[in-house]
């Protein structure tokens, strides 16, 4: 991808993650940048100052690298810095950028949540934090419909994409029902040639497009919008599997700008997430209070993760804590120790045990719930982190 293209952000797709997972470059450095760009972190261009510090620190870690490699690194870092200065539009709460000029890699993602500042330099992109964040968000299919047209959108991690090819132009000009019905038969329910028959056929086609789109894009929730008449016809004909995923209906013009569709979807998403967060936190507090199936606080949670007992990890957004990790068995702790209590290997200091805990929990197929709304303050009072246990 060329540099002209880099002020645009793409929605993170399954394909993007796979492409990054497979990418490797043996001759030149691959840079992976994560930056917290919440407004206070952007004030007075602080994000650029942070980036320069990350570059210096990365440079210090590369004392054994060849001169060619170091100069390629400086050039790559310069490219990233130029983008931060002129390409980045200073929106979003987090950034993830992957860059390797030698192999033509450039991917910039604007993230709805901040991740810890970091610049990784390796022969592959470092995608773990991005994968972890992506796992937490739901994919919303948004279908707008009136009696003649339909538009399909995907909203994911604060970004929107429109899929015009899904509905296709022919859907906006439905053929009449008489043409498709076998001759001699009469359908008593339909009034041939009226708007209603157009509408019914139009809705059926849109539903079949949706039935294909929804699983292909790995959607989790459905929103429908448009005019009342078309929405009601669609709702009545929606297959049960999709009806179960329907979370909201919105009244909106079919000519709405994608930004407007995004804004309305994010409002619904926030509302749902707030309810989910509140429900999960109260489940955790009840379980921990009864001493059955739930624990609160960092050390008990780290122990439960090490034992593979975590079903759902619940953590306050932004909670970080330096600590120790066992390089042999991945034991994590914030207690003072020199050797691993599990295998006696010398422990290594790491900047954030919470991030490692989340990664380990994901490896155990645990669900992760990051509390971002009003529940955040309550979680902070309850020890910042906790878990619902499998046993
Ligand atoms: Zn160990």
Q: What is the 3D form? A: globular
Bound molecules: zinc ion
Count the strands? Answer: 16
Mean pLDDT: 89
User: What is the H/E string?
Assistant: HEHHHEEEHEEEHHHEHHEHEHEEEEHEHE
CATH-defined topology of the largest domain: Translation, Eukaryotic Peptide Chain Release Factor Subunit 1, Chain A
Write a compact overview of the structure shown.
Helices cover 41% and strands 21% of the residues.
Plain-language structure description:
This protein is 41% helix and 21% strand. With 391 residues, it is of the alpha+beta class. The protein folds into three domains: 3-136, eRF1 domain 1 (Translation, Eukaryotic Peptide Chain Release Factor Subunit 1, Chain A, 2-Layer Sandwich), CATH 3.30.960.10; 140-256, eRF1 domain 2 (Nucleotidyltransferase, domain 5, 2-Layer Sandwich), CATH 3.30.420.60; 277-389, Ribosomal protein L30/S12 (60s Ribosomal Protein L30, Chain: A), CATH 3.30.1330.30. β12 and β13 form a beta hairpin. α12 (298-306) runs parallel beside α13 (353-363). The structure holds zinc ion. Residues 326, 328-329, 331, 340, 342-343, 345 line the site of zinc ion (ZN).
């Amino acid at each position: 991808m060329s540099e002209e293209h880099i002020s645009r952000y793409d929605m993170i797709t399954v394909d993007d993650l796979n492409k990054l997972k497979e990418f490797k470059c043996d001759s030149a450095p691959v840079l992976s940048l994560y930056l917290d760009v919440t407004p206070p972190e952007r004030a007075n261009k602080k994000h650029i100052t942070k980036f320069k510090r990350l570059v210096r620190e990365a440079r210090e870690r590369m004392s054994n690298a060849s001169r060619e490699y170091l100069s390629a690194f400086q050039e790559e870092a310069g490219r990233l810095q130029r983008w931060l200065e002129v390409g980045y539009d200073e929106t979003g709460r987090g950034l993830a950028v992957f860059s390797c000029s030698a192999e033509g890699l450039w991917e910039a993602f604007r993230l709805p949540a901040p991740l810890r500042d970091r610049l990784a330099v390796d022969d592959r992109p470092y995608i773990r934090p991005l994968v972890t964040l992506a796992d937490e968000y739901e994919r919303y299919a948004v279908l707008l419909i009136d009696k003649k047209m339909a538009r399909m959108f995907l909203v994911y991690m604060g970004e929107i994409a429109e899929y015009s090819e899904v509905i296709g132009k022919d859907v906006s000009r439905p053929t009449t029902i008489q043409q498709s019905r076998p001759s001699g038969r009469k359908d008593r329910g339909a009034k041939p040639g009226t708007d209603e028959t157009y509408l019914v056929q139009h809705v059926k086609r849109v539903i079949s497009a949706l039935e294909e789109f929804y699983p292909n894009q790995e959607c989790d929730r459905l929103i429908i919008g448009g005019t009342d008449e078309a929405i009601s016809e669609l709702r009545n004909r929606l297959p049960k599997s999709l009806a179960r995923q329907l979370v909201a209906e919105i009244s909106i013009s079919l000519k709405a700008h994608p930004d407007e569709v995004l804004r309305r979807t994010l409002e619904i998403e926030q509302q749902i997430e707030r309810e989910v967060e509140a429900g999960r936190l109260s489940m955790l507090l009840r379980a921990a209070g009864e001493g059955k199936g739930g624990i609160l606080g960092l050390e008990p949670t780290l122990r439960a993760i090490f034992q593979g007992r975590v079903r759902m990890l619940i953590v306050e957004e932004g909670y970080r804590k330096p600590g120790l990790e066992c390089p042999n068995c991945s034991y994590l702790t914030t207690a003072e120790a020199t050797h691993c209590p599990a295998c006696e290997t010398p422990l290594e200091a790491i900047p954030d045990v919470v991030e490692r805990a989340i990664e380990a929990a994901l490896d155990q197929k645990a669900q992760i719930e990051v509390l971002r709304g009003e529940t955040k303050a309550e979680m902070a009072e309850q020890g910042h982190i906790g878990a619902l246990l499998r046993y």
